[in-house]
Amino acid sequence: MINPVHLRTLVEVTRLGSFAAAAARLGYTASAVSQQMSALERDTGVALFLRSARSVQPTDAALVMVRHAAKVLTDIEALMAAAARTQDSASQELRLGIFPSLATYVLPRILANPAWKNLGIDLQVSVAEPARTIQGLRTGGELDVALVYQVGQSGLAWPHTLNRQWIGDDNFRVVLPAAWGIGAGSKVAADHLSGMPWIVHHPGTSDATVIERLFASCNLHPRVVAYSDDFHASLGMAAAGLGAALVPELALLNRPAGVVVLDVPEIRLARNVFALLINEKKTARVQLFVDLLADTLQKLGTAG
């Protein structure tokens, strides 16, 4: 399924001639625009741009898509208006499962958005880790939508009968205590961080296994001083000088003083964020909520 947010971004990129200009126009980062266009290429199965170090050129397929996108986006605006008119009618209840960092940083922004108030949805929220929210979908009726993440090819699984929609990526970043004297944004080879004290996930979880393999492939062998699955706790300990940590960008939106974010080229890992929907619950209102979620996550951009 093509995300209409990505179509709108495609129109702006082709009109303005660059990812950076489209990002400035739409309120994204250039990285977020690039991610959206890559996702659109995956969804359509066609190359939309010829990329070089200095420019992007739309392909013929992109130009054809832009011509059709105008009508599609107009129809979506009409749908939004129709949804707004239902505000005075019976609201739709939506039982939502959501993981903690998305509930902390993204959901409040959605609830404050005027577009949310026009949807006419009565929201019931359950905040839990993905495995638990998926169980709420499996066992028949506790939830209508689960917002989950997957790190690499980790062991998270869900019923094939659910509709899966990609929302965005939450990239991991390496953080160090500022007291160690390495400047923010410094480019550092992964093996230079080997032997340093680290705060890591508890072993045995699927996320920890993926990260351990990534570190090993980079010849990074951390000296573990703490185990923590709570990113805020990890950031607090890093700020206090205990050790380095690998945390997602959403958690960095509440970054404490005393930590710096590094650029470690070998460490490229993300939490892929998805919405899992029960097909019979996927109404126009619910789809508009999911699109609003994806748009909000993209606008947060990079936290580093």
Task: Provide a descriptive summary of the structure in words.
This protein has 304 residues and is an alpha/beta fold. It has helices at residues 4-16, 19-26, 30-44, 60-85, 100-105, 107-111, 114-117, 130-138, 206-217, 231-239, 284-300; strands at 49-51, 56-58, 92-98, 121-127, 145-151, 163-177, 197-200, 223-227, 244-248, 259-262, 270-277. Strands 3, 4, 5, 6, 7, 8, 9, 10 and 11 form a 9-stranded mixed β-sheet that branches. Strands 1-2 form a two-stranded antiparallel sheet. α1 (4-16) packs across α4 and α2 (19-26) crosses α3. The chain starts with a helix and ends with a helix.
Q: How many β-strands, per DSSP? A: 11
Query: Which overall shape is indicated by the principal axes computed on the Cα atoms?
Result: globular
Radius of gyration: 21 Å
How many helices does DSSP assign?
A: 11
| pLDDT < 50 runs, ≥5 residues | none
**Strand content of the residues, in percent?**
15-25%
What is the string of helix and strand elements? HHHEEHEHHHEHEEEHEHEEEH
- Which structural class matches the secondary elements? alpha/beta
Mean pLDDT: 86
Q: Percent range for helical residues?
A: 40-55%
> How widely separated are the two ends?
30 Å
Largest sheet: 9 strands, mixed
From the structure provided, what is the oligomeric state, counting identical versus distinct chains?
Answer: single chain
